[in-house]
Design a protein that fits this description.
about 0% strand, single chain, 5 helices, about 85% helix, about 190 residues, mainly alpha
């Protein structure tokens, strides 16, 4: 790869960390609702976020030839709508009286919300995939981006219970506000660019 290329090795690493920031924050918020730093749930969370980040980057890379305009035209709308919905749901649940759902239904709901959150925070990776293709970067870099996101998301989830203890019952409220803020940030970055 040419050192003068838009995506040098150092820039690829910084891009991977930068793209993972939203996933880390969202994982921190999701982990804050957990009573303890459950390693199995943290690893599952990291795997979901990492897979979404890497897959969206690869999708953008693959679609670069014909549909790059569509990807860049819609990604910020998808992010703000999904994150607004998920954040709003968390805010509403933070005011609910009584214990949260338990058992299988709660597990399925958490998994669905984790998947939706991962998808919403990774749509900007599709745009990066488009740029990587146009810059001659190999598609395999999407694996690196997904791997970095998986590690940072796992770490965020593990740190979440500490934030939850500090915030108490407000943790879910703050988490919802964080997700909405991430969505609005993605949207304004694209609209004002």
């Amino acid at each position: 790869m040419n050192q003068d290329a838009m995506f040098s090795g150092a820039l690829i690493g910084l891009t991977a960390v930068g793209l993972s920031g939203d996933a880390f924050a969202a994982s921190l918020a999701r982990g804050a609702g957990s009573r303890s730093g459950n390693l199995a749930r943290a690893l599952r969370n990291g795997a979901i976020f990492g897979t979404a980040e890497g897959a969206m980057c690869l999708l953008g890379w693959l679609l670069a030839a014909g549909l790059s305009g569509l990807v860049t035209a819609l990604d910020h709308w998808v992010a703000v709508i999904l994150l607004g919905f998920i954040g709003g749901k968390m805010i509403v649940e933070s005011f609910a009286e009584g214990p949260a759902e338990t058992g299988r239904a709660a597990g399925e709901s958490r998994l669905a919300m984790t998947c939706l959150t991962a998808l919403a925070t990774s749509v900007d990776s599709a745009v990066i995939g488009v740029a990587m293709n146009f810059s001659g970067v190999e598609a395999g870099v999407a694996l690196l981006i997904g791997g970095v996101s998986a590690v940072l998301s796992t770490l965020g989830f593990l740190l979440g219970p500490i934030a939850g203890q500090l915030l108490g019952r407000r943790a879910e409220l703050v988490g919802g506000l964080v997700l909405i803020a991430i969505g609005v940030s993605i949207w304004t970055d694209h609209v004002l660019a």
